[in-house]
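In this supplementary section we document a worked example of the pipeline. Step one takes a protein sequence of length 389 as its only input; no multiple sequence alignment statistics are reported here. Step two produces a three-dimensional model, which step three serialises into structure tokens for compact storage. The input and output of this example are shown verbatim.
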Amino acid sequence: MELARTRITGFPWDLLGIAQVDNIPLARIATVTGVYGLSFEIMVVNTALAAAFVTRGEKSQRGKWSPLLLATMGAMVVLQAGRWVSPPPVPADRVARLVQANVPILQGSDWTKEYFDGTLRDLSVASLESPAGASSSRPDLIVWPESPAPFYASDPAFRDGVSNIAREAQTWALVGNLGVRNASETPEHATELYNSASLVSPGGEWVGRYDKVHLVPFGEYVPFKRVFSFAGGLTKEVGDFSSGTSRAPLRAGSGRLGVFICYESIFPDEVRQLAANGAEVFVNISNDGWYGDSGAYAQHLKQARMRAVENDRWLLRDTNTGVTASIDPYGRVVASIPRKIRSALDAPYALTNVTTFYTRHGDWFAYLCAIISAAGLLLHLLFRARTEP
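The serialised model returned by step three reads:
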């Protein structure tokens, strides 16, 4: 069912196994099976618990329910004991400055030139000044979140501002923005618009870009636009982005960045492809301001943490309103800053080119479960057809 949610309906939000991301020993199953293996474990234990009580009600099985219940309770205790196990810290030899923009969700008409310039100036200061309590060493990477503002890659003011930051800091910068096919195109005349993250070198050159591949239906594009053409009021409010085509890492000096944007973090196999293609650290930029104060922002963080576990990668997560954090390969948040403030975090991380079984083989376990389930159902139907008079 969870595989169907991922592959068919396209909305695998908060899969069951995400609940175990804080159980470090148990969560390591995900390095082999992906999050689906954890969902399977939860399902098996709960099915056994239910079976114990069902067995108790059957006269022919009354002597068997007690051992089954005790075995199930014992398995629950053993499996959950891992929550009290904490491996030693994972060494980190690099620092990324994650800028939390905290820009409110505004309509296009609200973005005056003064507000735009002031926002760009504030983000520049946050990028160049060491956060309170941080070391004064130069960061290896500066990251801005998924574009919460009309920051267009073709806007000279925006490009010059970011280039100046990279040159002054003498480091790489990855910034969320609205990309166009050609840098010479203006936003008004762009034939294709992308939700993008652009990479800028220490010399100020714009050297690479990741365009979001998996767009949000009815949020960033309208699926089957001809079918929904009657809903003019709806489609007018929906973004009209084009989808990117590549999950190749972006090379920033000696490191390769596996970038994914917002909603893409809930798709295990898609994030896995970044590591399989050579990404040595994950960078997830997002604008979680849309969630407000609901529990969705915290759920989104946990799902991103599971992607770090599955692929044994450090994850740098930079969001507009929070949670902005550094996450180690065990899925632990090792550094973060409070939500809803404009600030920056000097986030520790490290590069690795180790690949897990899940990184190399993807959703094999979920597909195997689906095949066995379909075969079991088919055999059941065939057996019943033969035995019925």
